Amino acid sequence: MPDSGLFHEQTITLKGYEKNVLPASARTPQLILTYSDWCMGCVRAAPMWKRLGEEMNPVGISMSTVHAGREPKLARNFGARTDSLPHLVLLMDGRIYQYRDETLSVINIIRFIREKFGTQLIPRVDDSNYEDFLNGWRDNRVRVLITGKAEVLRLRYLALAYQYRRFAAFGYARLIEGETTQIQDRYNIPSTMDSMFVFREEVDTPAAKLSMPDLPFSVMTDVLEANKYLLLPRISSQKILDELCPLDSSRVRRRLCVMLVAEEEDEDAQESLRKYAKVYRGPGKDRVGFVYVSKKGQQAFVQALIEADESMVKNPDRRLVIIWRRNLSSVSFLWIPGTWKRDEESENDGFAEDILPPWNSSQYELTAALKRLFSDDGNLPNETTMKELVDENAAGLLQRIYNRILILLESIKDRIRKEDLLAAVSVIATIVFIMAVAYVMAYLVSLEEETIQAKRSKATSPSSNSCASTASTATLQLKMHELRGETYNGMVRLLKPGCRTIVLLLDKETKAKILPVFHRIVWPYRKNKTLMFGWMYVERGLDWYKQLLSLALPLGEGNPDPQQLESINPRNCIGTILSLNGHRKYFCIYHAKHLEGQQRAAYAEAKNNGLRRRIGRSRGQKKNGEDFLGFEDSSSDSDRSSDVEQGLSSPDDVEPLLVDDSSSFIFVERLLDGLSNWLDRLFEGTTHRYHVNYWPEFGNK
């Protein structure tokens, strides 16, 4: 078990950490070691921890321990694990820094602390930049110049600069011949000792000076505590107001604050009040403070003081107000009449700092008011509820977000061990590799698709000998090809096995009406790569159609002879659908008056209109379907009353196929009513097939 007199004496609990250690880390760095009972590494680290305490305590760095078994939550908060004890962290301003070195030694720990302080906490100063450094007091902080011969800054100086970073800016001048000669001569710096100079607004004369071979940390803190504010500091936050104008409810020992309300750029008025504060020797010298507040920076606070005094102007500039903070919520105050005059407005031409004020009327009013207030009958007539001051030095929203991100990244970096990092890198590399492979595969697939599309675009002509390559172009759209002499071989004769071409017969007058209907009906079949769709002008392909019928219909058995085929009426062939199988040399045929389509069309008509239909074969209908082939008993070819816009045949020759109360004719728009059902039967293989020995020649007229 580790030395109980060492570790157990410094042990803290979770409650003590949250109440004392964590708030104290804003001023003092905290070294915290996590240990446990029967930890051999902790036993070996005990002597080192004792020597480290002897080094850290004199330089203002606190040390404490945490028992991992008794405070597991606190140990986990520090990132400690049972297999990695002892575990050391550094707590600074609420941020936890992990000690990653494998060896716990005094030298390594001091190096670790130096790294966390950073190089910007105490920058280097020489003859070229010391005046700029000393004149930077306008950021409302005093300047502390440390000199010495050592190249490396002592840890106590870093701890001191960290503790007073809100009140003072530190700089280090290494005494080297040729680099800091002007500084040594100007301030008479001894070269054999370390020195510390505290400067306020006056850069020619330091407010405090300390020179010793070894500057004690406690002495340096005492000097800074007495000189940590400027002669005329700016009230830039509520914390500074609480320190410069503390609460005091006792009337006898009350502390007053003389506050100048002016623009931040009005340096003349500030300098005048600064000189007054420097030489003031009046009543209550130790109980009065001189400050100034920016009218723009603290608008709410200034406005509350204005509204509480009806005699006060609404827009004060260079006005003095004396305040007494009686408690947290209220403040008593008195506005000094008139504006505060600058030095050039002084009525005493022979002004000297050793002459007591007043020198002009405004300074006289201030001196008289202070004497009256520190007397027994002095009273502050006005009182108001105090508004909390705005922190003028607070970072903006974007800066706070940026700082939070940096803290998060640094915290992750500190908490991740080498083993965890390797595992995380392995997982990330695996994910990246999988995504890269997926991207390459997707790219190759898209490249192949583009190649196939390019090949298909070259094969869009129906004269191609591959129906699949032609029909596959209809994946995104359905293309219609005209059946004529140039496309006949590609659409019929050279079709591959299993491929078919579905052709609509029409003429120029009916194309605009019937082709869109045909396109809509066959649209669901656009992705079928074995199908090709087209249309044919009856006038252009009538001879081919006659030859096809003569080859398909055998002589006798009631079929028309070749002479009868010559009398086919082209108008009655409109709306005929041919399904051509080029490889197996057969075709199927659809027509509104074909025996295969009569019942289907009738049922479709009855379903659409909700009317009673009379389904039957017409009285003048030819046997074996001669009527659908285009034969007529009358001279309807010359009689325009038999136009398909009125019906497929004259009402005097044949009774219409579909009969209802409104019409006795089949109109062009109704020629394909039964096509959907016929296509279903076509793909089921239940339609009649007409075989031919060869495909006749197609001649264009």
TrEMBL record:
Species, as recorded: Artemia franciscana (Brine shrimp)
Origin superkingdom: Eukaryota
SUPFAM superfamilies: Thioredoxin-like (SSF52833)
Region (Disordered), start-end ranges: 613-655
Domain Thioredoxin: 15-110
Ranges of Basic residues composition bias in the record: 613-622
Pfam families in the cross-refs: Thioredoxin
Parts of the chain that traverse the membrane: 421-445
Gene3D superfamilies: Glutaredoxin (3.40.30.10)
Protein name: Thioredoxin domain-containing protein
Keywords attached to this entry: Membrane, Transmembrane, Transmembrane helix
